[in-house]
Amino acid sequence: MKYSILSISLLLLLACNSKNKTEGTETVLETTTVTLTDAQLKNAALELVQVQQRSVSSILKLNGRIDVPPQNIVSISVPLGGYLKSTKLLPGMHLRKGEVIAIIEDQQYIQLQQDYLTAKAKIGFTEAEYLRQKELNESKASSDKVYQQAEAEFRSQKILISALGEKLKLAGINTNQLTEQNITRSIQLHSPIDGYVSKVNVNIGKYVAPTDVLFELINPTDIHLALTVFEKDVNKLFIGQKIVSYTNNDPENKHYGDIILIGKDLGPDRSTEVHCHFDDYDKTLIPGTYMNADVEVKNKAAWVLPEDAVVRFENKQYVFVKKTEKTFELLEIQPGVSENGFTEIRNDESLQQKQIVSKGAYTLLMSLKNKAED
């Protein structure tokens, strides 16, 4: 009794496995040829075409990020150093050219102004002494040594004034308006561009050295798109080529531009950077934003068929070729680019000069599938 029950169980298990395998099996066509009756041929209303040559273009899909060229990134520092007294800058803030962005104070600015004004006060005396000694030397009433000392002191004073004046200009102090009544211990930093703040590296009260970068500003007028292009696709691109870019978050919002620079060297991953300029820059595209881009590559001549002639079956693509008046054969194709209702045929050699079903191709495919399932 036990053996009978065990045998029945094994038979049931084998039957279930056999059923599962049958259900998971893909449809297999026993033949690739379909023959229609006169009535079927009339009802199908088939239309026939031949492969034809057309100019087609393909879309090269790339990705990259919003980038800023080095000349459009401005690092703000204090040439002479000092303590940060005040600033209102925050990352993302927009600035106008000439706007005060920070106030720096230090005692060295007081000393620098004092030295400049003192040197200017002495220049009149040294110049007068130089001219007096020159006149006396010409009449031999003064020795050459005394005259040369007066001349050297006068020229040294002029050099000192010029050097101190340049230091004051470097600090942002206008020497033309500097007097003993308006000596200041602080200087103002002004924005050199119209743009926005990308980095703030200091806080109020901190001492900053001349080598420290206080702020980083970005000029958005020349922000561009840097795309990564692999070696096999570089020769498809050229300067001035149009692109359409978009973000993953908003693919419907298209940004148009053109290629302005193509890299001349390849990295370890066999890729280079292609830089593109936007026709109209969108301020919502901040540096670092990842972008996708579609580039229409150059047109090429290709053999094509109408898209209606191409049928899909089991993840492959086929066409029906006329063998006789009522017989049609299913042939696999290697499709290329699809554009404007046509599909490129890469293995066109086997289809040249042959009649191919365009309208009604799926009707023939259904007939083949029905035969396979009977």
Automatic annotation (TrEMBL):
<dbReference type="InterPro" id="IPR006143">
    <property type="entry name" value="RND_pump_MFP"/>
</dbReference>
<dbReference type="GO" id="GO:0015679">
    <property type="term" value="P:plasma membrane copper ion transport"/>
</dbReference>
<feature type="signal peptide">
    <location>
        <begin position="1"/>
        <end position="21"/>
    </location>
</feature>
<dbReference type="Pfam" id="PF25973">
    <property type="entry name" value="BSH_CzcB"/>
</dbReference>
<keyword id="KW-0813">Transport</keyword>
<dbReference type="InterPro" id="IPR058647">
    <property type="entry name" value="BSH_CzcB-like"/>
</dbReference>
<dbReference type="GO" id="GO:0016020">
    <property type="term" value="C:membrane"/>
</dbReference>
<dbReference type="InterPro" id="IPR051909">
    <property type="entry name" value="MFP_Cation_Efflux"/>
</dbReference>
<dbReference type="GO" id="GO:0060003">
    <property type="term" value="P:copper ion export"/>
</dbReference>
<comment type="similarity">
    <text>Belongs to the membrane fusion protein (MFP) (TC 8.A.1) family.</text>
</comment>
<protein>
    <submittedName>
        <fullName>Efflux RND transporter periplasmic adaptor subunit</fullName>
    </submittedName>
</protein>
<dbReference type="GO" id="GO:0030313">
    <property type="term" value="C:cell envelope"/>
</dbReference>
<keyword id="KW-0732">Signal</keyword>
<dbReference type="GO" id="GO:0022857">
    <property type="term" value="F:transmembrane transporter activity"/>
</dbReference>
<feature type="domain" description="CzcB-like barrel-sandwich hybrid">
    <location>
        <begin position="73"/>
        <end position="217"/>
    </location>
</feature>
